[in-house]
Amino acid sequence: MNSYPGIVFMAELDKKLKITERLAKCFPDYRNLSDVDYSVNQ
For the residues 16-42, what does the mean pLDDT come to? Predict the structure, then answer.
């Protein structure tokens, strides 16, 4: 059971309408990917 059932609906709606994907395109990413480290090990 989910503490907020509406979040499942919102996630499905976002997938179908690609809201987050379209919003992300409004913010260009100027980072140099060779300088970005996503590893967990430190």
Answer: 86
Interatomic CA distance for residues 26 and 38, integer angstroms: 23
Neighbour-count burial for 1-33, b at 16+ CB within 10 Å, e otherwise: eeeeeeeeeeeeeeeeeeeeeeeeeeeeeeeee
Alpha-carbon distance of 30 to 33, in angstroms, equals 9
d(C-alpha 27, C-alpha 14), whole Å: 18
In whole angstroms, give the CA distance from residue 37 to residue 14: 28
| H-only helix segments in the chain | 6-17, 19-24
For the entire predicted model, the pTM comes to 0.54
